[in-house]
Amino acid sequence: MIHILAKHWWVLVLRGIASLIFAGVAFLMPEFTFGILVTLIGIYLLADGLLATYSGWRLRGQDEEWWVAVLEGLIGVGLGVASLANPEISATLLVTFIAIWCLLTGAFEIALAIRIRKEIEDEWQLAFAGVISIALGVLMLVQPNAGALSIAWWVGFYATFFGLLLIGLGIRLRRWLPQG
Questions:
Q1: Per-residue pLDDT tens digits for 136-163
Q2: 80, burial (CB in 10 Å: exposed 0-12, middle 13-18, buried 19+)
Q3: CB of 120 within 8 A of CB of 3?
Q4: What is the DSSP track for 20-59?
Q5: How far apart are CA 21 and CA 40, in angstroms?
Q6: What distance separates the 2 farthest-apart alpha carbons in the chain?
Q7: pTM score, two decimals?
C-alpha cells in the first residue's frame, strides 16, 4: 500500500497546497460575507474530496480497504456540493457540515496512519492531521453559533496545519519512490 501512496505523493502535496491557499484567503480576507465564506468552504471541500477520492480509487486492487479513502473523498465532495448548491445555508448547518467532515476525515486519517505505521517512519504527521481534524470538529459542535469571522479563523488555522502536514507527508512518501 505504501508504494501506491508513494507513487501518488503529489496528490497529498496538492491537497496540502489547496489547504494553504484556502487558509491564506480565510486569514487575509475574514470580512467576506457569509455567502462568500460558504462558497470558499464549498470549493475547498469539493477540491479536497475529489483529490481524496482519486487517491482512494488509485488504491483499488492494491489494498482491500481502498474504499475507505474513496468514502472520505466522497463525503468531502458531497459536503462541498451541498455548500455550493445552497449558499444561503444557515451558519449552524454550515458549522455542522464542516464539523462532521472534520470528524470523519480525522478518523480516516488516524486509521490510515495506524495501518501504514509498519511501512513508514513518522506516520505521526498523518495521525496528527487526524487529531487536529477531530479537535476542530468537536470545537465546532460545541460552539455552533459562532460568527462567520470565528468560523473563518477556525477553518483557517485547521487548513494551515492540515496543509503543512499533508505536504510533509507527501514529500516523505516521495522518498519511497525508486530512484532512476
A1: 888 888 877 665 567 777 778 888 988 9
A2: buried
A3: no
A4: HHHHHHHHH-TT--HHHHHHHHHHHHHHHHHHHHHHHHHT
A5: 11
A6: 54
A7: 0.57
